[in-house]
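ok trying again, last paste got cut off:
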Amino acid sequence: MLHRSLAAALFLLLTSPLAAQSDAAFVEWARGRIAPLDDSGRAFRTLDRGIAGARLIGVGESVHETEPFLSFRLQLLQDLVRRHRVTALVMESGLPEAMALDDYVHGRAAKVDYDATLPGGFGALEEIRRTMEWLRAWNLGPGKKHPVGVYGADLPNRSGSMVPALDRLQEMTDDPGVRASIDAIRPTATQISAGWWRGTQQKYDPLSAEAKAELTANVKVLVERVDRLSIVDADRLDWVRRLAQVVRQSETTLRLGPFSATAPRDVAMAENTLWVLGRLAEGGRALY
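nice, full thing came through this time. structure:
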């Protein structure tokens, strides 16, 4: 019952303007607008007009790790994939780590380490695992012509470490200059890694001004060297350049601080999401 009521409320908020009213007036107003989830699919069809021209569809939540929200999102994803050609799922997870999820749902890998790809305990959530299993079945079955990719929009290790981005970058290029830059960055990146953003910031802040300036300079050189690369495989080059940008985003967030007025982490996630949209085929949509 909680699931159905919650979903009904979500559709109410998604499809109607909400004016300031008394409780009684609101209840009366809401009763005629709720679209409960049922087998008919009527609730999801109430969204059709609103998303007709959208390329990015966002779904939020007021509480993390809550089963009704997670189950609802899976049902919504399934409907959008089947009827509206959503071809990318973008998650608030590290961009380099989510590459392993994409390999799994496309069948390029036989298994995936959910704890490594979704740190912070999110990999243990059954609903998220069911989502990946459904996407894999879709991509290898009825969705072969319109497979769904999985992307992360967030900083690696959810702001706790830039090492996953360095690791992926090293796997994808053998350019000596890029590898030298990775080697120059890695000692400090490893030293300040903590598995979560606050712990990393607490390790970064006491570094000397010289060490911080050296990290900034090394990251700048890495990005410049990657920008000059010439790789025959255009998709591979696209990924290499994005991973270098993710290293830059991580360093920027550390240097400015997570609570900077410039909101560096939010800017990074916006940049990464726009990059995903740029990769979609014509007519494709992404669900964030």
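cool. The first helix runs from residue 2 to 15. The mean pLDDT is 89.
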